[in-house]
Amino acid sequence: MPPTVPSASSLPGGSGHLSLVGLPGAGKTTLGRQLAAHFNRPFLDLDAAIEARTGRSVREIFAAEGETHFRALEATVLREALRHPGPPLVLATGGGTPCFHNNMALLNDAGPTLWLDVPVDVLAARLPPSEVAKRPLVAAAGGAEAWLRETLARRMMFYTQARLRCGAACTLPAVVAQLAGAGFALPGTLPPAS
Length: 194
Description:
- By secondary structure, this protein is α/β, with parallel strands linked by helices.
- Helices cover 50% and strands 9% of the residues.
- It has 9 helices and 5 strands.
- The protein has helices at 28-39, 46-54, 58-82, 103-110, 120-126, 129-132, 136-141, 144-159, 172-181, and strands spanning 18-21, 43-45, 90-92, 113-116, 164-166.
- The chain has a 5-stranded parallel beta sheet.
- α3 packs across α4 (103-110) and α5 packs across α8.
- The longest helix has 25 residues, at 58-82.
- It starts with 17 loop residues before the first strand and ends in a 13-residue tail after the last helix.
């Protein structure tokens, strides 16, 4: 098992890494980029980091080596990202990341976690056929909405471990306000809570 990551209290910036979790299409990458810009933090999309490391798409890794291999690789890249020596990250995880290799506990130990709990019908509408083809587990199921419902039922026990939850309106202002209410801020990025 790879080494664990430092606790949020020992990470630079005090608040630790901010990790976004949720089903495919929930907006983790889009919102993650916005939050990183807002808080002046580096952004990391975990799937993109895996692709950069391997020179292959997530879909190609799944097809060639299977989910078990991909999840082990994902856990390794996640641990490396959480241990990086720079400023705390805003991290967009893959949809299944929290569900394997004790990853959700590691994410919670590394800083605030936010579950983007977007309704399944909204997610299905966000995943047109061209997008479904990029997501190996969704493509293999043959249909987005049914797969999303089944997957949410299996992953709910992990997603609900996130420290914060955002329902349907996961806009930047709403999430920033929720994070501020939970005490997440870097010096100079948000006014003090009143």
